[in-house]
Design brief:
It is a single chain. This protein has seven helices and 63 strands. The protein is mostly beta strands. It has a domain at about 1-130: Sandwich (Immunoglobulin-like), CATH 2.60.40. The chain has a 22-stranded antiparallel barrel. A seven-stranded mixed β-sheet has the order 28-27-31-32-40-42-41, with no helix packed on it. The protein has a five-stranded mixed β-sheet with strand order 3-2-5-6-9, with no helix packed on it. A hairpin with a 5-residue loop joins β5 and β6 (about 85-95). It is globular, with a radius of gyration of 30 Å.
Amino acid sequence: MRTLKRVLLAFSWLMILPASAFAQASITGTVKDASGGVMPGVTVEASSPVLIEKGRTATTDATGQYRIVDLRPGTYTVTFNLPGFTTVKREGVELTGSFTASINAELKVGTIQETVTVAAESPIVDVQNVRRQTTVTSDLITSIPTARSYAAMMFLIPAVTIQSGNTMDVQVTPQMTVFGGAGGRSNEGRMQVDGLNTGAALNGGGVSTYIVDIGNAQEVTTTSSGGLGEAEVGGPTISVVPKTGGNTFKGQMYLSGVPSGWVGTNYTDALRAAGLTTPGALIKQWDFNVGIGGPIRKDRLWFFGTARDEGQYRTIPGIYPNVNAGDATKWLYMPDKSREVRGAESWTVATLRVTWQASQRNKFNFYWDEQHPCNGAVYSNDVKGCRKQPSSPAVIGPLGLGGLTATTSPETAGYLSPYGQRAQQATWSAPVTNRLLLEAGMGTYLSAWGPFETPGNPTGDLVRVTEQCSAGCAANGNIPNLTYRSMNWLHAWNGTFTWRASASYVTGAQSLKFGLQGGYLVDDRQNFTNSQNLTFRVNNGVPNRITETALPFQTHSDVRYDAFYVQDQWTRGRMTLQGALRFDYARSYFPEQKIGPSNYLPFSTVFQRTDGVTGYKDLTPRAGVAYDVFGTGKTSLKVNVGKYLEPASNGNGNYSIANPTSRIATTANRAWTDANGNFKPDCDLVSPAMQDNRAGGGDLCAQLDNLNFGKPVFSNNIDPAILGGWGIRPSDWQAGVSVQQQVRSRVSIEIGYSRRWLRNFTVTDNVAVGLSDFTPFSITAPLDPRLPDGGGYVVSGLYDVTPLLFGQTNNFITDAKSYGDAYQRSHGILLNIVARPRNGLTFQGGVNTGTTVQDICGPRSQLPEFTIVTADAQGRPAVGPTNPWCHSEPGFITRVTGFGSYLIPKIDVQFSGTVRSDQGGVLAANWAASNTFVQPALGRLIAGGLPNVTINLVQPGQVWGDRVNEVDLRIAKVLKFGRTRSSIGIDVFNVLNSAAVLTYNQAFVPNGTWPVPTSVLTPRFVKIAAQIDF
């Protein structure tokens, strides 16, 4: 009774600890005697140098089964003993990720002093878990040519999909990459360190600019499907397990760099003809890293610390400096082709991890990671050692790479961050008995980000300008969508606080787990623009639109989620059944906020604390079965099904739509005819009404497109039913089946099929207008050989609002089901190969092919005004009044990845490499169709006096970007001196010198360039690299 009270007290303490699921390996099996009878009461110990407590024990139950859980990655020795029988020892059992190794034993009559050592290969097929997982060990991570970042590793995992628009050029330096799973939400991926999230507090809450040091990790594990109660979302989770030190001092040092002149060029005539005016180039790259760990006190207190300095200098493709930058009298962009646009970024990182075996039962881990940026433009240093604007007249660059693209003139880009970021973690585990395990943990991730205002900003009083370029734009460098003249900037602070706790009851045949998880996400942002709060749009340098804004103001959003789960795993014979039930409760709110006064908001408005999501409540079941087909542990059949949820995060889904600062109109547009050509709106911009002052020498300024602008009136009203309740939170169902087969010693192949479908979409209904208030029309696409079938086809399903109702806005956000069917469905096949033979060869790779269908045609048939600018993370395709493609079915998309290493015996020369082949993104043809084309079809001028409307001329999947095929190789000489092992070699990236285009400007210009490349895979470059392990 006293023991029970202690257990309940300990569990109660756990429940109040202020993290998410993490990988825990296990060893399980059955012990029999020589006659085949099961043996209860056998003591089984798993020991390894990676355990500070040296070993973990269990006792076989009445069925002869045992199970040892919560084991760190490493190599184990499993020992079986029972008085009156010989001791059996199984060595070399390798554990990675959440792998469950099946180790059976047969005991014979004898003395316990007699030991029989069994020689057998470590299992490679998991016959008890249904989750699909890929693990890359430390040795393989450090042997292949990568940028040693989670993004670089993620691109080599076939089950992971990357958010469209990402440059995918992650082999140069670590960078943030948003990712998801096949057929899921594009931002649902999770990046974790030791099971605790390190994602920012917005856009899914899964990733951030946090630079995790995978070069000093014990392993990196990617779980792509089949998660049980510990999984909040159905997308992939990348979990980095840091090294912990040990009873001996060990460490490593890594140095790499790209010398000047070791970078080639892939700027081809085809790229030049496609409109890429200047290539991007890597000027310099470096990565210096050291890690060391060992005992502070043997068997009681270990440490492992790292330090890293990495960064890059590069030129920015497709853009030149602006001769007219900072000149208030000039309104056009004039490229200065005598100079380059350059950027630089780097990070200095220091981490410390301490493992403390406080008592026989209690173990603590503490982790601190401090990261500071050093952003600037190229080579000139200040007293702190960070870069600043160079004095050379041949180059120009904003501070850092933030905001730098082929469509942004350098004067508009701020700098990345003057502040650092920090991750902190503390975890505790206690095997109270051989059957009861208690665990808890908490973590924080804090960051500040921008882009921030450039010191001494010379553009603060200048109006920002964008170039529409509907039919060529010689006046602005022939760059559609170019932004120039003035910067916008941002001050943002994010805080992510996570916690977890669990209690596991383990017997030989069963593992029962109760747990909780939670998170508190803080997003605080303040947006700024020029002092006039204006942006002009021009068409070939001629003004045609004014955008009025109500900046600056602060937006603050907080999200809190809590989850409780129970999961069970039960093995009977060759079958293992798994099941879980999870309860999630998520909500959001907005502290007191203030907006105004500003140019167009004469009075300030204070919004008191407001609730957002009032309380999503969900019960999500998950289940699976794993079957050892032949009873040999070499063939596993796995089936899983489960319901998962959209991530709870600021700015994601419905969590922030009720923020008062996002519900009022803080921006509005009006058509503008600059009749006197002075680039000054000769109108009263405070008045929302149309004004024609041309008779008096002034301008024509049309009515604002949102008549609520500048008023403390909500333009967006929200259906309370979508902000709380049972089963309302967007979710998805997943189902999958797979077979994994060991084809030879330490080589396995897995093939699986999966289906996924998303639920609970929302739409926006402008109730100020109805279906009858829109005029439908069709246009004929221009004749152009680059368009499908050469163009000349009819694009129908276009709408324009009745002129009398232009600018009337009263939006109502509600469930899409009220207006028709909306869905996203996907299915696909995944093939994985893992080979770890003992001849110096290691290989992992696979193929992922699948298709995703998105449809929102039901709601659009009733709500022609409903607009999604780009396909979003919720699974809705891009639509709008002049974007009719409400059904997206681009066909099968295939990813191929592979990476491996081979050490040639005797001469100790190591060859390694990576390969990946990724489908390019779906492209649009966004044509700014003028009244000349639209009026004959519409029967009138475009509403609101607009000179043109943007029409996407191609369906999703009709036009694709380049397929990206990249091969990277390393050759290194391995040198051994006592306990020191050195590897010195060269890495060759983009061996084939591919010039694949990564991102495009998708503005369509008839008889002009389209699509225009804006970034290209970094050309072939050579890196010198050396690693010393001691």
